[in-house]
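Session log. Operator J.P. requested a structure for one protein chain; no other inputs attached. Running the standard single-chain path with token output.
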Amino acid sequence: MKLYQLVLKDIFRRKKRVLYAALGVIIGTMTVVGILTVAASGQARIVNQLEKYGPNMTVTPAISSLDMTLGNLSLGQVTVGENYIPESRVAEIQAIADEEIRKALSNSQIQAVLPGIDNDANIATVAPRLYSTTTVEGMPAMVVGIYPAAEFKVRTWWQVADGKYLEADNEVLLGATAAAVLGLVPGDTLLIRGTDFVVAGVLDETGSADDSQIFMNLEPLQQISGKEGLVSVIDVRALCNACPVEVIAGAVNTAIPGVRAVAVKQVAQTELGMLDRINRLMLALGGVTLFIGAFGVANTMMTSVHERRKDIGIMRAVGSSQNQIIFAFLEEAVIVGLIGGIFGYIFGSALAYVIGPLIFEGTPIVFVPAYLPLSLGVSVAVAVLAAAYPAYRATRIRVADSFRSL
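Structure written below.
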């Protein structure tokens, strides 16, 4: 009879004790898998939220204020610098952003985020805005000139509640509050700086300043406001979470004079950091559980050594080497680990399914098959390490001592 057959025969003979040994490993592995599964779903939720926050970087004119004094008398502040950015900077910022992204990410990473994108295509979305205050229907209003397609990519939360999205140069798009205050609906005409425009649509309420603004194509606003070739601010949205936004901002500040690029720090990034700290705490708890499970395996194996002194003595008497005895115990530990890994993964996934929605309300829990080999590897490693000392003790049993116990 081969060694593994002896091991399997002994396991079936001592099923309860083996299951008790596996139970500690199952609980520890279940805890780790459950935490990792919930964390993966929670992180995916926060990342999706981060994607909806809009621009990753904002570029504004590099203006500064100087304090004017005469002796000890303050004369107020003077603003130094241009209040607008040349529109030609848009193409330069686009080129810098795409170059830095391609430096930081491999082509496969870019393709994963933007499948089918050409090597020379734009990766980032650059959306300039021109702000102009005027009077519409006898009321003060803020009119914003935009690139409609780019703006819609940056403001991913925008939804057209009525009518259609902005297209033609003679059209405007109204925020929800602006439409209500002005009493306008799609198809109506309004006069802005002496030029008639048709209301194309009305945005759904966003809860931001966009609700009270009027949007039109950038070029016609530049013309009627006398700001040809100028914009007020440029929003940049790198279309991937791994894109080096801070590096892009630094490169823009270095390469383009007269502008100030700032990477936008969103609340979601803080949430990700907090989630990471919670994950580390929970994984530490899972590690403690695995450690306790390892003690259970070691205790069961030590009990097994004492119970099988006669069997070990017979194996030694018929010529079994110390290595064979060690391998017999380690093979049993591997089987315990495999049992713990498989059931730990199943129960851990079920645990995540139960507690995940309680932690991240409304977040669907996605099972991660990649955690199965991780579960098996961790549980087998814990079981083998826990069985190492009992296996060594088994080799120290002398044949004469084992026969005295008969």
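Operator note: The first helix runs from residue 3 to 13.
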